[in-house]
Amino acid sequence: MLRSSRIRSLSSVIIPATSRLLSGATFKQSPVCVRLVCGHTPTHTDSCRRLLHCTASQDSFRTCGAAPFSMASGSNGRESLRQPKHTNRLNNEKSPYLQQHAHNPVDWYPWCQEAFSKAKSEDKPIFLSVGYSTCHWCHVMERESFEDEEIGKILSDNFVCIKVDREERPDVDKVYMTFIQATSGGGGWPMSVWLTPDLKPFIGGTYFPPRDLGRRPGFKTVLLRIMEQWQDNREALESGGERVMDALRKATVISAHSEQTLPPVLDVAHRCFQQLAHSYEEEYGGFSDTPKFPTPVNLMFLLSYWSVNRASSEGAEALRMTLHTLRMMALGGIHDHVAQGFHRYSTDSSWHVPHFEKMLYDQAQLAVAYINAYQVSSERLFADVSRDVLHYVSRDLSHQSGGFYSAEDADSLPTTESSKKREGAFCVWTAAEIRELLSNTVEEATGGVTQADIFMHHYGVKEQGNVQPDQDPHGELQGQNVLIVRYSVELTAAHFGLSVNKLTEVLASAKAKLADVRRSRPPPHLDTKMLSSWNGLMLSGFARVGAVLGDKTLLQRAEQTARFLRKHLWDEERQQMMHSCYQGENMEVEQIASPIAGFLDDYAFVVSGLLDLFEATHTVCWLQWAEELQHRQDQLFWDAQGSGYFCSDPSDPTILLSLKQDQDGAEPSANSVSALNLLRLSHLTGNQEWMQRSQKLLTAFSDRLTKVPIALPDMVRGLMAHHYTFKQIIICGQPDAEDTASLIACVNSLFLPYKVLILADGNTEGFLYQKLPVLSSLIQQEGKATAYVCQDFSCALPITCPLELRRFLLE
């Protein structure tokens, strides 16, 4: 992906060429809402607040659905009952986002060879629109422009229109978002890009209003101007598109040079810490002012940094920053106190008013961050939040076959009689609603107060609503309350003369009543697409939390997910991952006619999840599959010349840039995850080639790690692992024995980011003993389960006592 310095240098090449395209119009190439800081933060806060993250292979040549673009008359009844007036090819797609556009008066195509061929044969430019099903501003642009008959006709008559779900085709999204970032300095969704028939972009933006607003161009104006320029200045557009792509190819190269070595680990780690500390917000935690994102990759780095710097002031500060941030998030409105789980981000610095969308990848990473905080602090809040996140995912984001859905939307109908959706309608409360629901008197409390009085005090509920106007630019939350914990349970209990236990009981009862009412409200849209990558992240969440808490139910759910991935998202014949599968009308798991082959994220995140599952359950088949997937990942995505992994199949002719993700954002970069995967595999299988490949990968990103380590905190963790050396913690014992379980529980209770845990069960003919001959020399002492801690090809003296093992591991 592009770096900021490269964006500045590219601007002098790209922007003049594309801005000339629109000369004579009253706007620049970059429309309103395009400029986001780091791809997330808009400059136009009022109009763009919810724009933020509303943050292939031969199978790319998919055959589009056979249904032609059609128009049919229909009634004007409610949307769920009326016959649609228009139906286009997207009606045959399974992506929930594409299905949302199946009845636009636009001749939409999915990303497929038929669309590309049409553009060439009819000599038309391509209009590419990229978004996802839970993106607020994608919905706005659809309602304003794509459902407009006049605009729909302009689009259909003059362009080949392609609609892409960015979660279904991240390879397409990355290429054209790179273009948008290079030409505007920012990006976001919906993404609107115009391409030549050869798929080369020549102009783009994000959200456009439908009609001109003062000096702000409307979408219709943009379309008419592009049509004019395509007719009059075709050669300039095509040559400009070629220059753009040439510049981007050069600017996005990430490669290891022959003289390069691993970057200086201690310097890089300390610089990453300093950069995070500089951006840290003291009062409420987090790493920006507003909007404020959870950024679990930052928290995971800080905990790892603390683990190897425990005696230093910097280490102590890293721990303080992490725990404070996690506490403030857990108490804030970004945390759903009624139905669990975390919303996407906070619009204010205090984590109070969120953007209400819920993403699977956030739940997965935050569950791990909270359980790691529990390992470090033994603070029960962190374990409870981690468990609650998984409870939410199990209840609301789970398919019966074991997979996980992608997201819940922010918008929903306030009531069953409503016709217009509002953000947060499913989650917010008026004071009157709460007083009516929680009207019973709490006899043990002083002053004859009701359950509502206690609940409203504790969660900051106000009669006039607790959302400030500047956090509600569209007036959708007027008079509403977003629950946020204002007092500790001790203070609230003392205020009402209750014991802590009684207060906890009162609050739990109140939340259960509110949850029942919420279930009767119209639910937000659920994106039921199931992605290998995000399911891999969630697999890690269930495996890690289950291991730390010793919860067999969570571990069984993790194993169910692994079986789901193997059954529905692994093509045994082709030996490759599939990127996505879908929920059918009867709840069955379905695939599209030409399944989308897995991307780098799919392999890396699933391998990581399988390694976590193996260490949690000691079931060898998960390690074997992880090794198999890693081999396949290397074959498909490894850059043999420059090292590191490409995001997608570099041989796909429809993907014009071979990119290597060089930023850990809402999700970690797959290269960052792979750096640790390779190291773990080398210590679990004894294959030193994995370690060497990890070193080569890190060397390829050496410049980035040295100059801007804050961009890759997860990769810095991988770099640190090479310096501090992994521990192999080997437990020799019978799998079902109590003493074996006690030693394993001891290891799992500690935050040890640079270790692998192996159960040596005495099966000398098994996979592990064949891979790690050292296991045959390690035996139980006096018939007791025995722990060996090995490092740098030597093992410490055997330990049979869990307390002694704990002391040794914390030294």
TrEMBL record:
Gene Ontology biological process: carbohydrate metabolic process
Pfam families from the UniProt entry: Thioredox_DsbH
CDD domains for this protein: SSP411
Source organism superkingdom: Eukaryota
InterPro entries linked: 6-hairpin_glycosidase_sf, 6hp_glycosidase-like_sf, Ssp411, Ssp411-like_TRX, Thioredoxin-like_sf
Domain Spermatogenesis-associated protein 20-like TRX: 87-248
Protein name: Spermatogenesis-associated protein 20-like TRX domain-containing protein
Natural source organism: Tachysurus vachellii
